[in-house]
Structure formats: C-alpha cells, structure tokens
Design a protein that fits this description.
The chain has about 160 residues and is α+β, with helices and mostly antiparallel strands. It is about 15% helix and about 40% strand. It has 2 helices and 8 strands. It is globular, with a radius of gyration of 20 Å.
Length: about 160
C-alpha cells in the first residue's frame, strides 16, 4: 500500500502543474512545456505528540523552489522552504486556525509543527511549537521472511 502511495503522489502532483489554457497551439512544430511542473521527490510519515499523524511530501513547487505538502488531520498545507540556521524550515500563510500560518521545521528524523500569525511568517522568533514529531518507524510485517528470521534469532 505504501509503495502505491509513493508511486501515485508524484504522478498526481506532476499532473497538477500545467493548466489547460497553457496548452500550446497546434502547429507543425513540436510543443515545448510552458510551465515548470511541480515534482515530489520524497515522502515521510511522522507521528507527533498525542499520536497525531502527519504526512510530509517533499519536492519542488511550480516555480522550482523546494517545498513540502503536509497532510494534517485530513487537510493539505503547502509550505515553501525558508532560511534556517539548521535543518530545513518551511512556512506558509495558511494554517490550522484562521489568521495563523504554519511552520514545519525538520532536522534528521525529528520535526516541529509550529503556528505563527500569518503576517509574521518570516520572523524566526514568532512561531510557537504546537507539536513535536518523529518519523514513523516501519515495522516488518509479522509474516515476512525478515520478521520470521528476527523472531528465530531472538529465540536462540
């Protein structure tokens, strides 16, 4: 199921980048793309405090800038990469509450979901952390050969 998700997301995101009215007129010459397409390069599942799941899909936006699409409580948030002293920081003016934006700060396998007044997105001192998160560790399936070998090794 996860593999299907990883394959489907880049295809869906890349299909969203070009509008129908951007289609080239039919002439005898081959058409060249007029718009840079959005592209997903990696996705990660996170578990935050109080078991809040967040999916982060990292890639580039239509302008070719690094971005992340967060799925939080069934809602999608698109954040653009901003300057950070350490790790990767993404920010966007749309948030979980009206008038509040989101900041997603990632370093290694940890992340912070922060909210900030939408007019202070660029101020690194303004955000307040609302959740701390870690990447979700994948557990081998109980019936997989690797899981069976691991059980046999620990039983010895």
């Amino acid at each position: 199921m996860r593999m299907l998700f990883l394959i489907a997301i880049p295809a869906l995101l890349s299909a969203c980048g070009q509008k129908a009215d951007d289609a080239p007129e039919k002439t005898g010459a081959p058409a060249e793309p007029l718009v840079t397409l959005a592209q997903a390069t990696e996705s990660a599942a996170y578990v935050c405090e109080k078991d809040l799941p967040i999916t982060a899909i990292y890639g580039t936006n239509l302008a070719g800038q690094p971005d992340v699409a967060l799925i939080v409580q069934g809602r999608n948030f698109n954040l653009t990469q901003t300057v950070s002293a350490s790790g990767a920081r993404y920010a966007g003016a749309d948030g979980l509450e009206p008038g509040m934006g989101l900041v997603w700060w990632v370093k290694g396998n940890t992340a912070m979901l922060q909210q900030v007044p939408a007019d202070k997105i660029a101020d690194p001192a303004a955000p307040q952390t609302i959740k701390t998160c870690k990447t979700k560790a994948e557990q081998p399936a109980a019936s997989s050969p690797a899981a069976q070998t691991a059980r046999q090794d620990t039983a010895k």
